[in-house]
Amino acid sequence: MPGSHYFDEVPSTRSRPGTVRIDLADLSMDVATDVGVFSRTRLDEGTRILLQHAPPPRISGPILDLGCGYGPITLAWASRRKRTEVWATDVNRRALELTRLNAESANLGNVRTAHPDEFPADVRFGAIYSNPPIRVGKDVLHAMLRRWLDRLLPGGSAFLVVQRNLGSDSLAKLLNAQVYPTDRLTSVKGFRILEARPRPGGPVTGVGADATADRGLDEGLGTS
């Protein structure tokens, strides 16, 4: 794909720092943004809806902001749960650095950032919050969801916000087909909030597991 995208590891566009105002009922702050990261000029509407309408974690444990961008989800949950470790991960290293700097500026010492390929192997989560990168492509999205949902603690949940016209219902069907029990919690302004839970019995492992998973995922999404 030509040009630079927010899901590139190292954006090719030259840095042009900016700021975005985050105004929620329980959080108000200016945060640093830059070109080459997701929704750099405003708080994305899907992210706002997720932060306003997704429930708090069902169990205790670290929280993950999956695909953190410049960090609005990280900052909100680190502010709401100051005694809880909140991890942020993104393939985009510029985004990760912005999240780190924004957390530092907000004096949020419970934030940890890590690139997916450098993430500690032993960290598991009570909750995942994500506005997933639907436009990254089906195969990449499938692999990303499998990778991180399998890190949920028993009783944990992943809360995902997806636009209806970008395949939210197909995504819910996909996750259920892969034995991640998934429900639609609410619909706001064309966005669905999905809650996905761990596989009963844990991740699929063994010979042929990946191929079976890929086949089920393709059947789940269909033409989305």
Helix content: 25-40%
Q: Give the topology string: H per helix, E per strand.
A: EEHEHEHEEHEHEEH
* SS class: alpha/beta
The number of strands is 9
* SS element count, helices: 6
Major sheet size, sense and barrel closure: 7 strands, mixed
Describe the structure.
This protein is α/β, with parallel strands linked by helices. It is 29% helix and 25% strand. It has six helices and nine strands. It has a seven-stranded mixed β-sheet with strand order 5-4-3-6-7-9-8, sandwiched between helices. A two-stranded antiparallel sheet has the order 1-2. Helix 5 (168-177) runs antiparallel to helix 6. The relative contact order is 0.14. Residues 206-224 have low confidence and may be disordered.
Furnish the topology, listing elements before pairings.
Layout: E1 18-24, E2 27-33, H1 45-53, E3 63-66, H2 72-80, E4 86-89, H3 93-105, E5 111-113, E6 125-130, H4 138-149, E7 152-163, H5 168-177, E8 182-188, E9 191-196, H6 209-221
Helix pairs in contact: 5-6
Features:
6 helices, 224 residues, two-stranded antiparallel sheet, alpha/beta, disordered C terminus, 7-stranded mixed beta sheet, globular
Short description:
This protein has 224 residues and is α/β, with parallel strands linked by helices.
